[in-house]
Amino acid sequence: MFSLVDAWQEDINARKVFKFRLELAEDTEAGNTVAERELELDHNRLILPQVKLAVWKRDKGKCVICGSSDNLHFDHIIPYSRGGSSLVAENIQLLCARHNIEKRDKIE
Ligand SMILES: [Zn+2]
């Protein structure tokens, strides 16, 4: 179990990097273990090829709503504009053009 003790954002080479420090929640004889992690916030909404491939395989090359395999688009489940990530397959799904447009109409 880790607990988050600190978090901050740094600009490194014009890229936003989110840093956070974790501590072991339990006290041990050796003292707290502190780990520092970096998470680069990629301000690029492009979906990486390996993510696309993983999504394509998971969704079997079909729209997740109707099963159509025509005119498919990679869709952000949590919109990029709302902080959704392009970097993880969990936030990307396959939608046909029709459902992609329908979803966009509902959100925006
Ligand atoms: Zn569809």
Structural class, by secondary structure, is alpha+beta
**Major sheet: arrangement of strands:** 1-2-3
**What helical percentage do the residues reach?**
10-25%
Unreliable segments (pLDDT under 50, ≥5 consecutive)? none
Summed over residues and divided by their number, the pLDDT gives a mean of 78
Oligomer: single chain
Number of strands: 5
Order of helices and strands: EEEHEEH
Helical stretch tally: 2
Largest sheet: 3 strands, antiparallel
Structural commentary:
The protein has a three-stranded antiparallel beta sheet with strand order 1-2-3, with no helix packed on it. The chain folds into two domains: 2-40, no CATH class; 49-107, no CATH class. It is elongated. The termini are far apart. The protein contains two helices and five strands, in the order βββαββα. By secondary structure, it is α+β, with helices and mostly antiparallel strands. Helix content is 19%, strand content 35%. The protein binds zinc ion (ZN).
